[in-house]
Amino acid sequence: MVMPRDPLLRAWVALIGLSLGSTTLTLWHWPPKFAALAGALILTLGWLKARVILSRYLGLAAAPFWRRGFELALAMFCLLLLGLYLLASAF
């Protein structure tokens, strides 16, 4: 398959692929001992989707300073969510 040259169309294709990946992970029947891993993988795919949206659709690819700031804040938030999720799944 040939990737399109338009950055927005490429971002859209990436978002569709990441959405299919997260949908597949949610429909998979995970054994109970791997449920935390499944949640972490789904959260990671959501984080990657947010990065694509920030970078391409909001135009932060053209502003590296602002993109790094938003990505740092997003990464910290996702790490907080992952920590809370893993803490809640331990009980």
Overview of this protein structure:
The chain has 91 residues and is mostly helical. Helix content is 77%, strand content 0%. It has helices spanning 7-27, 35-57, 64-89. Helix 2 (35-57) runs antiparallel to helix 3 (64-89). It is flat, with a radius of gyration of 15 Å.
Task: Note the run of SSEs as H and E.
Answer: HHH
Outline the low-pLDDT stretches: none
| Average pLDDT score | 92
- Strand proportion: under 5%
Largest sheet: none
The count of β-strands is: 0
Fraction of residues in H or I helices: over 70%
Shape category: flat
Distance between the termini: 45 Å
Radius of gyration: 15 Å
What does the oligomeric state look like here?
single chain
Count of helix runs: 3
Structural class: mainly alpha
Question: What descriptors fit this protein?
Answer:
mainly alpha; 91 residues; 3 helices
What is the gist of this entry?
This protein has 91 residues and is an all-alpha fold. It has helices at residues 7-27, 35-57, 64-89.
